Amino acid sequence: MHIDWTAFTPWSALAGGVLIGIAAALLVLATGRIAGVSGIVGGLLRPAGGDVGWRVAFAAGMLLAPLAFTAFSSLPALEIDASYPMLIAGGVLVGIGTRFGSGCTSGHGVCGMARASPRSMVATLAFMLAGFVTVYVVRHVAGS
Amino acid sequence: MKRALPIIASGIVGLVFGIGLIVSGMFNPAKVLAFLDLAGAWDPSLALVMVGAVAAASIGFAMAGRRGTTLLGATLQLSSARNIDRRLVLGSLAFGVGWGLVGFCPGPALVALGTGHIKAFVFVAGMIAGMLAFEVAERRRKSGLENVAPEQIHPTTADG
Asked: Residue B44: which domain range?
């Protein structure tokens, strides 16, 4: 392993992380809910959901974030290198996996870890491990 | 007002969350994949996103836990599930594979969709299809379990 120091952005990573954490803290204090994106979006697809308003508001806030950001600064790079078949396969796996696994990077990785939930620790270990292995296989085994 | 406040708060939180994803770099799949590529030129930045996020969030959860209610006096809706089962592990592994294939998890994908990028749209469409497949599977499983005692049915409330 070698660290790519030119790509390392510790301060913006830490600052962005703190903003994400503040958002999660605000949501639980204001609404009593977990700021888990897969759960919030997935709950909209459940016909008997009922509590639609806050979910739509949260998703709308996320969608508007790039627009709000450009009011202060230009957007950083958005580089999506995956091919279209890969985007669909990845999207389906993320959709099914996060719902069966009851959460994603935000719900388990941030909120669950912050609550020291054993379920979230196991889930976070599992998706991190699968992510590391997948990238290894794609880039260093299957790729040239 | 009591009904509108949590909705307004959720919108503001979604916005702050999304800006956090942009500032942190998680919004960019290339940076996420550079973090997941331990054998390549490794970019450890995203580990610090998690450190910052968990630290800040844990203060909020500790405050909420001590109060026992929200600031508006409503009950906290936090999962109390403790069972570590096959659904949790296999689901999370499948999520990790999809994350590693593209570099998007659900939050950054939504924020990227907000830029109007066609590839983000395709990914989110796949993700919603996957979530719908889960709903169909759940409904089938529940109708198959109608004659089974409720405590034998897994809790389906989302942790996140």
From this structure: 4-152
Cα–Cα distance, A89 to B137 (Å, whole number):
18
ipTM above threshold 0.90: yes
pTM of the predicted model, to two decimals?
0.93
Domain count across chain A: 1
Q: CA B96, CA B104: separation in Å to the nearest integer? A: 10
For A32-86, what is each residue's pLDDT tens digit?
Answer: 999 999 999 999 998 665 689 999 999 999 999 999 999 989 999 999 999 999 9
Instruction: Supply the Cα-derived Rg of chain B in whole angstroms.
Output: 19
Do A97 and B44 lie within an 8 Å CB cutoff? Answer: no
Minimum-distance CB partner of B160 among A97, A107, A136: A107
**Using the beta-carbon criterion (under 8 Å), do A20 and B51 form an inter-chain contact?**
no
Name the nearest CA neighbour of A115 among B82, B73, B49, B14.
Answer: B82
Q: Residue A46's domain spans which residues?
A: 10-142
B139: nearest CA in chain A? A46
What is the rounded distance in angstroms from the CA atom of residue A51 to the CA atom of residue A71? 32
